[in-house]
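User: Sequence recovery, please. Input:
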């Protein structure tokens, strides 16, 4: 049986891959991961300029507003697969302006799919969804069998976008699947949303010698998944799209850790590396905190693993070490 890496390489060799939200966290990490692969990588971004990457891959950059159909007509030309990572990611920004959030998270999906339908293109579309679509689960771990009960505007709009993808896949216009992500962390650019990438924020603070802040006693459980594990799951989805099409999957490490434990690990390891005396400070939660913050979550990725063979490679402690080391090298 071929290795998982060879399956991916065989699939993408000679193909054109579109990565949306190319200046963002997942997208920029994916482009770096694929830069030495024999393929064409088209990076779609709203930013004026992206950092150049050197490798075997041929890069094509497109700058434009993904809320405009003309941008998708250009971006989707001769594309074999799409990693759709673009979007607005803050729960609080979505609550403050639901219309703008709809335009950022739902409209682009519809325009992309309509472009495929109009021009007869049938790419494989991999969508970065969110595990919080299930709302506040009553038991753990969470699998695809759980009912969807979004309790925020952000989750509702991600659910809409996911539903559109399933519909167009069902009608045969594309092949598509959604990976509902848990708490992704690891090296990469800072998230554009202040309520995202908390472990990364805390890792940088610890390396700078600043104490870490924790709301309450930090007892809520999260499923933290290292960014490289996350991206390997997206890549492994490609050669398995026959089985993944029209579906969604919950993607996480399958391991639960309290927020308190994660922050204390960051502080302890940063102190060992730097000689600092960073501590974790417990503070009162701010007013207006979204109820989605008060949840426990552990993913059950068994269904995705059974189809693709994917397994997370990094434990939380290993991922924190790699993250701290990466950020530390950047500060030198």
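Assistant: Recovered sequence (332 residues):
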């Amino acid at each position: 049986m071929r290795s998982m890496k060879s399956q991916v390489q065989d699939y993408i060799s000679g193909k054109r891959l579109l990565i949306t939200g190319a200046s963002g966290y997942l997208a920029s990490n994916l482009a770096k991961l694929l830069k030495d692969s024999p393929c064409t990588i088209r990076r779609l971004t709203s930013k004026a300029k992206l950092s150049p990457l050197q490798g075997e891959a041929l890069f094509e950059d497109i700058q434009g507003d993904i809320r405009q159909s003309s941008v998708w007509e250009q971006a989707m030309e001769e594309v074999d697969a799409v990693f759709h990572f673009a979007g607005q990611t803050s729960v609080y920004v979505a609550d403050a302006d639901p219309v703008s959030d709809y335009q950022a998270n739902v409209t682009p999906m519809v325009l992309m799919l309509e472009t495929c339908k109009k021009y007869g293109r049938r790419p494989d579309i991999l969508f970065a969804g969110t595990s919080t679509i299930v709302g506040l689960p009553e038991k753990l771990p969470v699998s695809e069998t759980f009912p969807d009960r979004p309790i925020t505007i952000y989750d509702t709009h991600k659910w809409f976008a996911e539903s559109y993808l399933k519909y167009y896949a069902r009608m045969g216009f594309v092949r598509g699947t959604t990976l509902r992500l848990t708490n992704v962390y690891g090296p990469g650019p800072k998230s554009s949303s202040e309520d995202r990438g908390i472990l990364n924020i805390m890792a940088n603070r610890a390396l700078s010698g600043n104490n870490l802040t924790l709301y309450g006693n930090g007892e809520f459980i999260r499923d933290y998944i290292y960014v490289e594990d996350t991206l390997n799951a997206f890549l492994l989805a490609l050669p398995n799209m026959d089985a993944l099409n029209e579906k969604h999957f919950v993607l996480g490490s399958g391991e639960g850790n309290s927020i308190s434990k994660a922050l204390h690990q960051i502080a302890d390891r940063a102190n060992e590396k730097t000689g600092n005396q960073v501590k974790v400070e417990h503070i009162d939660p701010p007013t207006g905190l979204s109820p989605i913050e008060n949840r426990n979550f552990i993913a059950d990725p068994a269904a995705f693993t059974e189809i693709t063979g994917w397994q997370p490679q990094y434990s939380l402690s290993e991922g924190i070490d790699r993250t701290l080391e990466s950020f530390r090298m950047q500060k030198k």
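The two ends are 43 Å apart (CA to CA).
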